[in-house]
Amino acid sequence: MHGRMAIYSISADAHELARSAEEGMLPIFQAQSGFKAYSLVATGDELLSFSAWESEEDAEAGSEAAASWIAENMADKITLKETRIGEILLGTAIGVSTKAGIST
User: SS3 sequence, 17-85?
Assistant: First the structure.
């Protein structure tokens, strides 16, 4: 299992960006081979993206899909600072959604 971690600087509301990602990026990830999980974490003026994939190749393909979607949908609101792909050594899962009152 491999993970992709990306750090973005943001110039828009993190909650709005997360809603856009949930509606636009998540379905693209879900359609990709080897996709397992996706999370976003807001830290002030940064957004941290974590996704889990079956293989390193799947994570690389997911990274390319993310870059393409961001360029088309939110390039004026978000800038990639760093991205890394590595082996996941430990992971747990929680159900969080941008949809109020929904726990998955």
Answer: HHHHHHHHHHHHHHHCCCEEEEEEEEECCEEEEEEEECCHHHHHHHHHHHHHHHHHHCCCCEEEEEEEE
